[in-house]
Design brief:
2 domains; single chain; mainly alpha; two-stranded antiparallel ribbon; 2 strands; 61% helix
Length: 108
């Protein structure tokens, strides 16, 4: 369990490094080059733009480091509730003790 937490932290740091570079590259290719091509409005210019876009398209996507949500308490990777960032099992225990404000058991 501890190993998976370390592995996840390494992936998060790798993702942060790559994401900044990808955002800058995407801005340069799409915004700056498209303005130049629209200025000249030639078919050859548009072909060059789409060629460059297809070349860098793989860089625009999320980097290979996949981030996994984990429970803060148990480090469980499945059944995570996004607003609370804890697993459904921990949520059930904490809510039954009344530790999560605004949550109570539904009675029909």
């Amino acid at each position: 369990m501890f190993f998976s937490k370390i592995k996840d932290l390494k992936k998060r740091s790798l993702y942060n490094k790559n994401e900044k570079f990808c955002v800058v590259k995407k801005f340069v290719v799409i915004n700056l080059l498209s303005r130049l091509i629209n200025k000249y409005k030639t078919s050859k210019g548009r072909e060059i733009f789409f060629l460059l876009l297809s070349k860098y398209k793989s860089d625009f996507s999320i980097s290979k480091a996949q981030i996994v949500r984990r429970c803060v308490f148990t480090n469980r990777s499945r059944g995570i509730l996004r607003p609370y960032n804890i697993s459904r099992l921990c949520f059930k225990k904490l809510s039954s003790f009344g530790l999560i404000p605004g949550v109570k058991k539904a009675v029909w």
